[in-house]
């Protein structure tokens, strides 16, 4: 299950200047989408914002974080893991209030998730832990030695198998984590593209409605222009003077104004057609992002399968090692019995020789 967006808002993103720790440095040239994401597998919440091709905010929310309103439209929070302070400038005070309330809800949910995970860890069987138990920590510091002087002696085992299997598992988990991070960044980018796509679709519908209205107005203006031209032609044919010349000037001026208005409407139609082509480009980018996200999902499934295989191999190896240890202990006990019998035989021989 991938991370899912649960809340989004638009704001200008800032980061604190690491040199002065006082001034703000803009992280985005314009307002960008800032989203809360929830990871159901890890029970973790993150704030993610993508500007262009890079993530300008990637902050995991912890119970210790606090979102502070420093003005009517500006708020900030500190991220100790990222070693920075993020600032958000909103367009309205209501947007800031909504973001602040959602931050408090997510912070409380993160606290409950942490407490629940700690309770589960306390109930887990220690035998399932990959790390060595506490009573073997001292033995793992010494080289492997076998002692058969008595049934109370211990068998020291090598830690090379544990180190190899643990390192392999950590390597695969790291690969899976990197794939998940890349997938989350692409998903945030896709979410932003979907938001932009919805706005472009609404603008395109409105533009199409305006184009239809302007076309009707254009047809009416053209009819009016033709009528005025006919009137001008009639006046020129009669060759009247005086008031007719004034009427001709007024009609000519009205005709020029209508032609200027027609040119302005044509320019607006051309701009709307250009926006329509931009919408098609955005649709193509969204399809490409979906395709990349599907590829990452396939890669993620493959990595999960490899992790499962490694865990199965690790469990099988641990079982084999336990069986080997049991067999060695049984052999040690048999050797102890044999040594004890040989010791009795030696003492019997000594007594026999003394007699």
UniProtKB/TrEMBL annotation:
PROSITE patterns in UniProt: WH1
Matching Pfam families: WH1
Compartmental location: Cytoplasm; Postsynaptic density
Keyword Magnesium applies: no
Primary location: cytoplasm
Family as reported in the entry's similarity comment: Belongs to the Homer family.
Name of the featured protein: Homer protein homolog 3-like
Organism: Astyanax mexicanus (Blind cave fish)
